[in-house]
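STRUCTURE:
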């Protein structure tokens, strides 16, 4: 399970393609841009980590579930990371206007079962009866806040700062990709 906060609602056309070009021609440079984006997005990562309790949010989350604990003290906040994803939407979704799949270029993800439950429990539907799931949602909402409890609030809080941090990196990536394409185009043109 993953809770995802897309920290780049500002759409930058061509960023995926730019990063793909860099990856094809200069992997070292592409890795450097990933490091630069991680630094730029660090305010969101830190804010999301601050929203995660260091102890299990509910007592039952410390118990083993299918052979391992649902919540591991001191480890959950470390599961919040940056992911740079340049893959394309699946062909079946492209034909439908990509309405069923959104592929963000820069994402802050929270992986881990316990963290996903903490962040998103009750997001799809409110507690409606007296089941264990309903009690979990009620307790999470009363002790913390309604879902999303960690990721989305962090993304909203740091959006402007992260956008300011990313814009120079995007411009530099575009310049480098154009330079690499020009060098390779002239090299290809000279062999005819």
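SEQUENCE:
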């Amino acid at each position: 399970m993953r809770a995802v906060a897309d920290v780049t609602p500002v759409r930058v056309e061509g960023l995926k393609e730019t990063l793909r070009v860099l990856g094809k021609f200069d992997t070292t440079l592409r890795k450097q841009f990933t490091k630069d984006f991680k630094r730029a997005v660090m305010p969101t990562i830190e804010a999301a980590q601050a929203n995660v309790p260091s102890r299990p949010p509910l007592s039952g989350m410390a118990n083993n579930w299918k052979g391992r604990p649902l919540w591991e003290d001191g480890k959950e906040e470390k599961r919040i990371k940056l992911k740079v994803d340049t893959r394309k939407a699946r062909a079946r979704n492209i034909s439908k206007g990509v309405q069923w799949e959104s592929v963000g270029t820069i994402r802050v993800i929270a992986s881990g079962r316990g963290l996903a439950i903490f962040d998103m429990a009750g997001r799809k539907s409110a507690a409606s009866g007296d089941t264990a799931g309903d009690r979990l949602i009620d307790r999470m909402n009363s002790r913390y806040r309604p879902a999303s409890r960690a990721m989305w609030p962090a993304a909203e809080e740091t959006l402007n700062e992260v956008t300011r941090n990313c814009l120079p990196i995007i411009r530099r990536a575009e310049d480098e990709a154009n330079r690499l394409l020009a060098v390779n185009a002239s090299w290809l043109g000279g062999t005819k």
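REMARK: Residues 2-183 form one domain.
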